[in-house]
Amino acid sequence: MATDMNTDMRTQMGSGKGFIAALDQSGGSTPKALKLYGVEESAYSGDAEMFDMVHAMRSRIITNPAFNGDKVIAAILFEMTMDRDVEGMPTPSYLWDVKRVVPLVKVDLGLADEVDGAQVMKPMPHLDDLCKRAASKGVFGTKMRSVINSANPAGIKAVVDQQFDVALQILGHGLVPIIEPEVNIKSDDKAQSEALLRDALLAGLDRVPDGQQVMFKLSLPSANNFYKALIDHPKVLRVVALSGGYSRDDACDMLAANHNMIASFSRALSEGLTAQQSDAEFTSTLQATIDEIYAASIT
Predict the structure, then answer these.
(1) Helix (H, G, I), strand (E, B) or coil at 196
(2) Of 77, 101, 250, 259, which cross-links 95 as Cys (Cβ 3.0–4.6 Å)?
(3) Does residue 157 carry a catalytic annotation?
(4) Is 180 annotated in the active site?
(5) pLDDT in tens, 273-294
(6) Does an H or E element contain 292, and which?
(7) Rounded distance between C-alpha atoms, residue 146 and residue 179, angstroms
(8) Which domains can be identified in the chain, with CATH numbers?
């Protein structure tokens, strides 16, 4: 049964039409996400109340009729969201069993300080435990983010080496990792960073055992279809795009020009949604957003 479920999830992740909803804001970015949602910091006291509020926001999105596997093929969860319930069911089970949306979980613990123009991930001593819990809850894969701020070969190599080290650890738990080396869209030498990154990622795929696959989450490239070699690679299940600070409309326009690359948007997905909206307004706004991101993802 679990094998069949995993096969169905893999098929949906690899070839399903639609995009990935990124619902994985962590502690540092949660106040900002809540503020955009219309919840001021004065509305909650302490982390526990803050996380209750953001879980309520995510639950409202996940349970909304507009949110389902027809257009949202997967959702990336914050670890705490994975461990909580939605409508009395564990969130991963609700996503897959009720909504037909593949559950994924963010595993990194944030970024280290910049060295050589890049920020690798902080150490993840909890990773094996998190992967075991995720697998037991029916989660399909993981996501982890690093940042590249300039076209420094040493910095980009450090990011890619670490990402593949951790990806192999995650593959060992039967989960499919999303490798996310984000290129800062405000970087002066963004295109050069992308060229170095693409070569490093292609080389890194040699480390992935035959018959296994990873995914990539990448900044929208300066040249259209720049990541085609990764998209076509047999060891790559899917290549997805992050919005990276672009407005939703700009991100969707750029994404539509990159064929077979799909969205994995966070802020661009929740843009326009507020706690104060009626259910009808919320549904209408979310449906329009999903339709726009979906259309850009199926080109």
Answers:
(1) helix
(2) 101
(3) no
(4) yes
(5) 999 999 999 999 999 999 999 9
(6) helix 279-297
(7) 9
(8) 2-297 (3.20.20.70)
